[in-house]
Amino acid sequence: MTQVDLADWGARRRRRFAPDRWGQLVCRAVWDDTADMRSFFLTPQDGSRIEHEPGQFMTFRIDTADGPVERCYTIASSAARDGGIEISVKRQAGLGARALHDTLVPGVVIEALGPSGRFGPAFVSGTAYALMAAGSGITPMLSILRTAADRGMNPDIVLMQVVAAPTDLVATAEIDVLSRRLQRLVHLPIITRGPGGVRPDADLLNRIIPDLADRTVLCCGPQSFMEMVRTTAHAAGVPADRYGEESFDFSSPLPTAAAGTDTPSRTVTFARTGRSFECAETSTILSALKEAGLPLPSSCARGMCGTCKTFKHAGEVAMAHMGGIRQREIDRGFILPCVSRPLTDIVLDC
Ligand code: FES
């Protein structure tokens, strides 16, 4: 991260921030939403505009005491405003979050990739929404509400916001103001701890949103919360194409097929350094690479963020991604090693 002079109001060049290449954002403002949630307003250093849909995220390369790490944060700001983006980060969310809180101040430049992701009303459409947020899962919901208000829309939205304590509620005053413009918005804050604390479970959901089955459900929060909402929505009859979720809680790793002794393995070679390692056909290239102790930037390990995107010179892979790569990049020869399993020997541009 480097420091720049914020006195420059900047030329108004309106080129689009390239979503598939690492670029540089300047931190312009920082403020605290709660005791442990801090927001950052960032603009592209080259004056370009960031085009995004509400619900999308960006990946940030963050300098930490242990070296650079890549982390994904959902854009909280309105998609109708392209002057910059706002992200809101909980300090306890880990190493990258702590480093952002400690070092990202106005004037500091940070590398970013995106926007990416297929979460939000642009990708999971509907006529009425149930937005289910727990903790920092409120950030994509704020982008959805802010965008709807900025675009003069009046969608039918129920927003359930689950937090541990009233002091953890983010943007309450702003949501009140937004609800004067979004007159069909119903805000349901749920406090889970302390006297009168409520457990967010299927019973509660069905009670407070009796027409859940008729809504498109968008959910963001810890894995356990999303599992509960997904199961309840499914049981209520919400079809898969009216349910979407987003989480950057990667504490539960994706299941991987175990490699047996007779599982064929393939050789993966780095074209630039000449280093190579063996990767079982049942393993992802990223996990084999980590086992071999070789570094490759990665974040989500789920094919969502695009951080590990690498050019493949030769070989065939089976790749099941979640929107972290565009078809035209695949056609040009790029892969996401975190979700690619080798079908032949592979040569990567590393
Ligand atoms: S690490 Fe996110 S797409 Fe590979």
Task: Give, in order, the helices and strands.
Answer: EEEEEEHEEHEHEHEHEEEHEEHEEE
Structural class: alpha/beta
Instruction: Tell how many strands the DSSP assignment holds.
Output: 19
| CATH fold naming of the largest domain | Rossmann fold
Into which percentage range does the β-strand content fall? 25-35%
Number of helices: 7
Gross geometry: globular
CATH architecture of the largest domain: 3-Layer(aba) Sandwich
- Tell me which ligands are bound: FE2/S2 (inorganic) cluster
Mean pLDDT: 91
Low-confidence stretches: none
CATH H level, superfamily name of the largest domain: Nucleotide-binding domain of ferredoxin-NADP reductase (FNR) module
Give an account of the 3D structure.
By secondary structure, the chain is an alpha/beta fold. A hairpin with a 5-residue loop joins strand 13 and strand 14 (276-280). It is 19% helix and 31% strand. The protein has seven helices and 19 strands. It folds into three domains: 2-116, Translation factors (Elongation Factor Tu (Ef-tu), domain 3), CATH 2.40.30.10; 128-246, Rossmann fold (3-Layer(aba) Sandwich), CATH 3.40.50.80; 265-348, Roll (Ubiquitin-like (UB roll)), CATH 3.10.20.30. The protein has helices at 95-103, 138-150, 172-181, 202-208, 223-236, 285-291, 327-332; strands at 2-3, 23-32, 37-44, 57-64, 67-74, 85-90, 108-116, 128-134, 156-163, 185-191, 216-220, 243-246, 265-270, 276-280, 310-314, 317-319, 334-335, 340-342, 346-348. FE2/S2 (inorganic) cluster (FES) binds at residues 298-301, 303-308, 324, 336, 338.
